[in-house]
Specification:
It contains 1 helix and 20 strands. By secondary structure, the chain is mostly beta strands.
């Protein structure tokens, strides 16, 4: 007589990238809808060699940073959800399905109308996937087996733009701190306007003659307050006096320009020494 012991180990992995260990691929990583066209879609592709069970949810959340500039997702801010969330207004079809190996599925999205004020609203798109388990009756081994199930979560974003939208960045503080081997630059900023900032942050290190010696860049999404950090090794600097310039631009390589709310670049600079 066959005996089967089933053990489920659930691994949750939230990513902003498209692909997790060749399981499920999602494209694009951001979906944009507006009041002129309240419909959008994204593609889910099974790149594995197993059938995958897929489900879709729409939690509200946004990225924030801690004191070290590390990005953390916030999902329990009911006040911001009431102001900016559209989780209860989004419908996706289908919201659960099975994909065979190599199969793809278009998920269609729509935002129900509401008396919105001008601005940008959003929700997260959480795609959960796991390999489909065969029915127990199909197993033929006359022994006890352990069945391990991995669940993967991928988090992308749906933006809904309504009316006149604008964004901006206010640099509240730009400073640096030194350790034995590196210099860390810290920029504390606030987002202004009625929409999140999608763009790039650039740090340029200039020598005493104004020549650019080093450049560091990061694509980012700023919803509210934000801290950006850049670490520069001291051994990459061979002079004593430098200028550090931080700038924010509304462009990034992974988002089409027409989907980004534009603003004039914002920058600030400080002088610093190597030691």
């Amino acid at each position: 007589m066959k005996k089967t012991a089933v053990t489920s180990i659930i691994l949750f992995l939230s990513v902003l990238a498209c692909e997790v260990q060749a399981q499920i691929t999602i494209a694009p990583t951001m979906v944009f809808i507006d009041q002129q066209n309240r419909f959008g879609n994204f593609l889910v592709l099974n790149g594995s060699d197993q059938a995958q069970e897929v489900s879709i949810e729409f939690p509200f959340g946004y990225p924030a940073t801690n004191a070290e500039g590390e990005v953390q997702m916030i999902y329990d801010d009911s006040t911001k959800a009431e102001q900016f969330g559209i989780s209860n207004l989004v419908k996706g079809f289908p919201q659960s399905f099975v994909l065979q190996p190599g199969q793809r599925q278009v998920v269609r999205l729509t935002v129900r109308p509401k008396d919105f004020s001008d601005g940008t609203y959003w929700t997260r798109i959480k795609v959960t996937s796991n390999a489909q388990n065969p029915p127990i009756g199909e197993e033929t081994d006359d022994e006890i087996t352990a069945q391990i199930t991995y669940k993967f979560e991928q988090i992308t974003t749906l933006f809904y733009k309504h009316g006149e939208t604008n964004t901006g960045i206010k640099i509240n503080d730009f400073t640096h701190r030194k350790s034995d081997n590196s210099i860390t630059f810290l920029a504390d900023v606030s987002r202004s306007g009625n929409s999140p900032f999608l763009g790039s942050i650039n740090l340029n290190i200039l020598d005493s003659e104004g020549n650019t010696l080093l450049t560091r860049s990061a694509a980012t999404s700023i919803y509210f307050d934000y801290r950006q950090t850049f670490d520069i090794p001291k051994d990459s600097l061979d002079e004593e006096e430098y200028t550090a310039e931080i700038s924010f631009e509304s462009q990034r390589p992974d988002v089409a320009r027409e989907n980004i709310i534009q603003m004039e670049p914002v920058s600030n600079s400080i002088s610093f020494s190597r030691e």
